[in-house]
TrEMBL record:
Native organism: Meloidogyne enterolobii
InterPro entries per the UniProt record, alphabetical: ZN622/Rei1/Reh1_Znf-C2H2, Znf622/Rei1/Reh1
Any one cellular-component term (Gene Ontology): preribosome, large subunit precursor
Protein name in UniProt: ZN622/Rei1/Reh1 zinc finger C2H2-type domain-containing protein
Domain named ZN622/Rei1/Reh1 zinc finger C2H2-type: residues: 1-72
GO BP term, example: ribosomal large subunit biogenesis
Amino acid sequence: MKHMSKEHGFLIPDFDYCLKIGAGKTCIRCNSYRFRDLDAVQKHMRDKNHCNFRIDDTELVEFVDFYDYSIEESDDMSTLVNVMKEVFESCSADDDASFITIPTGSSIGHRSLMRYFKQSLRPNNVGIKTSTNRAHANFSLKQIGLNQPTSLLAVKLAKDTNRITNRVVQKYQLKKGLANNRIFVSAGRKDQM
């Protein structure tokens, strides 16, 4: 098998469990023509580069007869059951079984709590920093002579200015809209106006 894989690129999946090879005298790739002997099949496979399996599930079903997994399955199942028991015993759950701690130290939460895990909360110290920064900014403003009443006066003045500006813009837009309506001429007859 080493020669076939090295020289011809021929690989058989799960070679250890193979039972019969060469019984059908057909190419495993194209599976269309039955050859007279095993040498003819091998020559065809080398010439056409058919030295591999198709990896489709439907194609692999044909080759189930050539494999015997029964011996390994019983050993694998008993090994798998033992491993799962060990992992289950090493895991610890909370009283309400909403969290499980796995052997690596990580904890896994129940899916009903997923909405809480998806939240991205700010750290607690962020609020402290912003209030500290705000207090520092207010102190700096007081030092240079700008205190709270002056800033309220500036805010009121800005609101009044915005209100007046918006009123002027609305009057201008109304005037332009009316002028554009006078320019518009209907596509119909003149007596329809």
